[in-house]
Design brief:
Number of helices: 14
Distance between the termini: 53 Å
Bound molecules: NADP nicotinamide-adenine-dinucleotide phosphate
């Protein structure tokens, strides 16, 4: 197939392009900045500079390149400072999830592109009731924390728009596996605390496994939604000390809820105490997906227990992170 990867220069895009090429697909890869187009070209794709918020340009690019499939991997999270008010940090990404998705779907319709896969997110979205691990059929949180309402709504918008059009939305876990992952700096600096009992559950996914699932989703008929997460959803109190140790950092601080609310806001408290994890059973069964990094326990060690990983600074802040309680940590 000819696959149009919107966001080919991003954290996931640069893993996805080589896997698609290895699988025998031709890739057209977009970046926003012409400078990053070179990065995409080096990966073996035909590079196109594109602003996803320009529907005319999106339509032109899709019509000119004549793809068989489109993948939407565009976010605007590099360099974002995550604040207590998640909706502010995610404002541009939310636009890309709404207007960007609409532009790509409209272009797909005009160009007769039948396969469409888009990046969604599994963390902090499922209803905070019942068991700790949720399937795609479980309800989403009907009352998201106020500071992340628009972010939740934008993800739901994307899920619905994509599946209504017959495509596949992939609810990825927290990405890890790159030397500049957003979690590394706050954990190293003890700015990511265990909140309360640390019972909020996170689901992780190694970037290589996320890319592999995306390739399979492109070859699969929609509509569908899949959680693309590893086998071991885990409470913050379990994974955070392991990550800190792997990075050679001091153990994480422990914050009572009231203190975390002050520094990290309601979303940070929710992430640390109430968030639910996600099940990958459907993706494994229906996509035939298997993971090279089935759990973060092994994956963190492989990704970070090297001098390069443990000394490099990230270029962006943590995904779904809490605000950095800097004054408390100094
Ligand atoms: N599930 C998760 O945990 C999750 C999800 C997403 C991101 N993240 C994390 O967030 C950090 C930053 O992500 P990232 O490296 O993928 O960077 P990013 O800034 O989110 O960019 C992703 C892609 O979108 C493109 N893009 C951005 N704005 C665009 C626009 N208006 N029109 C068209 N394309 C646009 C970028 O192009 P340019 O390269 O030219 O800017 C890039 O190809 C990474 O650490 C990543 O792991 C985590």
């Amino acid at each position: 197939m000819r696959v149009f990867v919107a966001g080919a220069s991003g954290a996931l895009g640069i893993r996805l392009v080589p896997q698609l090429i290895d699988r025998g697909h031709e890739v057209i890869g977009t970046s926003r900045s012409p400078a990053n187009a070179e990065r995409v070209r080096v990966l073996g794709a035909e590079a196109v500079a594109l602003d996803l918020l320009d529907p005319g340009a999106v339509r032109k690019a899709v019509l000119e390149t004549e793809p068989d499939a489109i993948v939407h991997q565009v976010t605007a999270l590099a360099g974002v400072r995550f604040s207590k008010h998640l909706d502010r940090s995610f404002a541009q990404t939310n636009r890309l999830r709404r207007e960007g998705t609409d532009a790509l779907l409209a272009a797909a319709r005009v160009a007769g592109v039948r396969r469409f896969v888009a990046q969604s997110f599994a963390g902090m979205r499922y209803a905070r009731v019942g068991g700790p691990v949720k399937t795609e059929d479980d309800p989403l949180d009907p009352t998201p924390v106020e500071t992340m309402r628009e972010t939740s709504a934008a993800m739901t918008y994307l899920d619905e728009a994509v599946t209504d059009a017959g495509g596949i939305a992939l609810r990825y876990g927290n990405f890890y596996g790159a030397h500049n992952d957003g979690l590394l700096a706050p954990v190293r600096k003890r700015q990511f605390p265990i909140v309360g009992n640390g019972g909020g559950v996170s689901s992780f996914i190694h970037l290589d496994d996320a890319a592999a699932a995306t390739v399979l989703a492109l070859e699969h008929d929609g509509p569908a939604i899949y959680n693309i997460v590893d086998d071991e959803p885990a409470p913050v109190r379990e994974w955070l000390p392991v990550l800190a140790k792997t990075l050679g950092a001091k153990p994480p601080r422990q914050f009572p809820v009231w203190l975390a609310r002050f520094f990290a806001g309601e979303a940070g408290v929710m992430l640390g105490t109430e968030s639910r994890g996600a099940s990958n059973a459907n993706a494994k069964r229906e996509l035939g997906w298997s993971l090279r990094h089935p759990t973060w326990r092994q994956g963190f060690a492989e990704a970070y227990a090297t001098p390069a990983a443990s000394t490099s600074e990230p270029r962006s802040s943590a995904p779904a992170n809490v605000d950095r309680p800097q004054s408390a940590s100094r």
